[in-house]
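Reviewer comment 2.1 asked that we show a complete input and output for one of the modelled complexes. We chose the calcium ion case, as it is the one discussed in the main text.
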Amino acid sequence: AARRGGGVATAAFTPVAPNTADRVTVPRGYRSDVVVKWGDRLFKRSPAFDVDNQTPESAALQFGYNNDYVGVLPRGRNRALLVTNHEYTDENLMFPTGRYDSATIKQIAIQSHGMSVVELQRGSRRGSWTQVRPGSAPLNRRITGTTKFAVVGPAAGDPRLRTSADPKGRTVRGTFGNCAGGTTPWGTVLSGEENFNGYFDKSGSLDARYTRSYARYGLTGSGSRGWGEVDPRFDLSKEPHEPFRFGWIVEVDPSDPRSTPRKQTMLGRFKHEGANVAIARNGRAVAYMGDDERGDYIYKFVSRRTYDGRPGRAARRRNLELLTEGTLYVARFTGDGTGDGVYDGTGEWIRLTSDTTSYVPGMSVADVLIDTRLAADTVSPTKMDRPEDIEPNPVNGKVYCALTNNSNRGTSYPTDEANPLAQSRTRSTLGGPLETKSGNRNGYVLEISPAGGDHSATTFGWDLMLVCGDPDAPETYFAGYPKQQVSPISCPDNVAFDSVGNLWISTDGAQLGSHDGLFRVPVSGSQRGHVQQFLTVPTGAETCGPLITDDGHSVFVAVQHPGETDGATFENPSSTWPGTDDFARPAVVVTYQD
Ligand code: FEO
Ligand code: CA
Ligand code: CA
Ligand code: CA
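Response of the prediction step:
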């Protein structure tokens, strides 16, 4: 068992100042290495990356684009499996102008999505990690936009999931828009299919049977990718059911490269940010999930069967079925009034359906799971400010959710105590003045306390532990910690915990003039609310998938979309990070003590 409290879990560090450097900036006394980057070889047969000669076949054998989620599963003392997903592609930054025809670009893009499993070994310094040589890494895997997935759970085989290529509705090719994720206690990785609507276009009219559903999911058929031109399943006019096969949580078993990854329909269909599992006291697996859209909801799933913690294949086989049966809930937050000086209150989990019984009048189990947003709309849950990563803290048993922002709060979405800001202060350039804008621009961190500390309970307490922004802005709040001593933080996105239960927060789209970054904040004791910035990422990038190893000696982050700024192109990049080429390459980085 790992020693608790080592490394960055307890070490003091001098916070990184807000900055706009085109690099990964870490505290004095730390260094960071690129572990694996876009295009790196994963197999003996992988060609070396050549930006001028990319092919769909080579992309399928190389590390994909725009790594987001990061899981690190230890294998013995000196090895680990890195599992990442590849959310989306940015063709303007991936391809030299005029070098490729548009069909080839689309095919390469499809293969550059998905997930990667990469074997790692400890490096020469404590806390450092390197990629195992591809020929010696039998567990390496690429899952792409065409990899075969099994659809499982109660909605598998539903007529709405059937297509001309899959008349049984049980086998889907590929995964797209994979955002955050989580590692399960049984050693699998969950990844959320988020903005899947953007992958679909239309050549004619839309199927009138699905008008309401398409509208609720943003399926307008105006996807800008034009993938329908190279594969008709992305054309809603030709294959109206294909979008029902996306928007799920996918589960991958990285220990078996030949296993078929699965789409878990019992966890509902929405713009899944990710899913993180805790085992409740009664043994049930509880998955917390956010639907990342302005005004959408927070969900949880509670399994019917209980987790089997015994070693061996039989237990593992049972655990692999835990997510297929259970109950799906959506959250309602009630404030206790702001007279007490804090945004807090109580809440309830409203059940939507079990695997056998729907609790939504007029909707079947499959209806609720496929059109989860429509089902939830009928029970008046709380419309949240873009619920992103939500994760149980294994040390204190509370649950933490990043609510990134909502520029429309206070206008199209009325405020409530859980989403209280109708205006907030941002700055457009580092050192510039704070300006008041409408809506919640900098986000919150929501803390949920399950009743009796029981993850399977249907009631909870809650509070906004952080109201993010510049500490100089009067609306900000850092759990009561003295504001002069905290780092400015804006647009929390992914969350993680170290071995002592500190919350780590990565940001996306920070609105304070600095690049995005990673922050540590204790959640208990005298340091509760003491937000300190641990690193910043290069120009145009967001910080993703933070992971702190249990020994506290390694901090992994995914640097997603470096160089993605207005007007940037392959020939005129705004970032050339990590400096190996004259263009930017998304990559996973590990930081450790020098
Ligand atoms: Fe892909 Fe919700 O961020
Ligand atoms: Ca209150
Ligand atoms: Ca995210
Ligand atoms: Ca996370």
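The chain has a mean pLDDT of 97. We note this here for comparison with the apo prediction described in Section 3.2.
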